[in-house]
UniProtKB/TrEMBL annotation:
Family matches, as PROSITE patterns: SAM_MT_RNA_M5U, TRAM, TRMA_1
Keyword Lipid metabolism among UniProt keywords: no
Domain of life: Bacteria
The keyword Nucleotide-binding is assigned to this record: no
Chain ranges of the TRAM domain: 1-64
CDD domains: AdoMet_MTases (cd02440)
Family membership noted in the UniProt record: Belongs to the class I-like SAM-binding methyltransferase superfamily. RNA M5U methyltransferase family.
GO biological process, one term: rRNA base methylation
Binding site for S-adenosyl-L-methionine: 290, 319, 340, 401
Keyword entries, A-Z: Methyltransferase, S-adenosyl-L-methionine, Transferase
NCBIfam families in the cross-refs: rumA
Protein name according to UniProt: 23S rRNA (Uracil-5-)-methyltransferase RumA
Gene3D superfamilies: 2.40.50.1070, Nucleic acid-binding proteins (2.40.50.140), Vaccinia Virus protein VP39 (3.40.50.150)
Organism the protein comes from: Eubacterium plexicaudatum ASF492
Amino acid sequence: MVKKNDRIELNIVDMSADGSGIGKTIGQENSGMTFFVKDALVGDKIIAKVIKMKKTYGYARLMEMLESSPDRTEPKCPIHRQCGGCQIQALSYEKQLEYKQNKIRNNLMRIGGFDASQIHMDPVIGMQETYRYRNKAQFPIGRDKNGKLAAGFYAARTHVIIPVEDCYLGVPHNRKIISHILEWMERYHVEPYDEKSGTGFVRHVLIRYGFRSGQLMVCIILNGKSLPRSKELVDKLTRLKEMTSISINVNEQRNNVIMGNTVKTIWGSDYIEDWIGDVKFRISPLSFYQVNPVQTEVLYGKVLEFAQLSGKEIVWDLYCGIGTISLFLAQRAKKVYGIEIIPQAVEDARKNAEINGIGNAEFFVGEAEDVLEKLCGSDDMDVPPDKEENREWRPQVVVVDPPRKGCGEKLLAAILKVCPEKIVYVSCDSATLARDLKVLCAGGYEMVRGQGVDMFCQTVHVETVCLLSRKAQ
Ligand code: SAH
């Protein structure tokens, strides 16, 4: 019987949804037993050490490569295995795209209950530059194992930071900004936050870069309400000519949520700007903005293609963030209503409509499920809840773009109640997408098309857009 700490030989035959290799034991008395091994790829033959045993499978660590997979490529990042952010950096890009296509398809079949013949999907759309595509970086600040100030990531199950000189997914500016901040902390004895004791000051640094505008934003997340020696820090950071906005964010909670609710600008503008297609966007520190601007344009192009707007439609954009999809679609619709939970994001969305001269988009703050419930409260949707305003509410097209956990049941029920002709579902987690599509399809819709877009090269994540259409009664 295989047990913990045994060394075993494995053939890696498949890959799991989190990017681990799935191996089968060879040459043991119980050949064919399954093990999950991080950093192993399909086609590898390896020696691994068992780290955990379950009844019918186990977990093992890659120790030695006996034969390496033909799909391997040279990873750029020397610490990609430790970091774990890029789970499949060692896999050739072509195979990464294949892996993502299979992941979406498997989830739709296994979780969504769709038959292979019902799934119409072109291959995942990849990108040319598979590194340095991210416009956002978030670094925790702390101390490394020698007690030196550092920015990087937490070593697994510790409060120690593994320093990151340069993350290859991010822009080169990140490195300069981080080194300025660490120098400033060193010089003026500004303490990093200590997760364990809850003491110290600087928790995280958030950096955003507008790829088309060239504008930089830095937000320092503090366990405190104001920044000492802020002038000295501003002097350093404004040496970068692209610097546009420097702010602090107050987070005095003892949890692992990165940002608190309060932001104060300490230099420059409260936001940076960027473009998607012809639409200009204002982005504040607390607002969600897609991290891969090049592929965002491809993704929204698909949303537009799937929505097939003629200019007469009422569209709802649920989970609308700063109104990116809403404003993209408003150019081809009669009216777009967006709903979003973060008030600052809604403020940005309204401002974005204004600066682009888009008069047919309106935004509401709140939980999508609650706002919808109110709007759909009346059984006769054509009678607006507030008759004075006399808005036309009933949508022909509903777009949803929820966070990873997907749409709540209440929201799905509200969508089914208003019964739009089309639903365009944008998802960053194909497992919850599949779960939600099952509900919508049981409620009278059919999946017409799906399309994966790779917004997160080197990682196991993939964005998916699906078009659902109401079945004829
Ligand atoms: N469509 C936007 C944002 C998508 S991200 C874009 O492409 O840029 C998901 C958004 O949903 C985030 O802005 C998040 O703040 C918001 N959100 C999360 N839970 C929500 C809820 N219950 N109701 C409304 N918005 C929510």
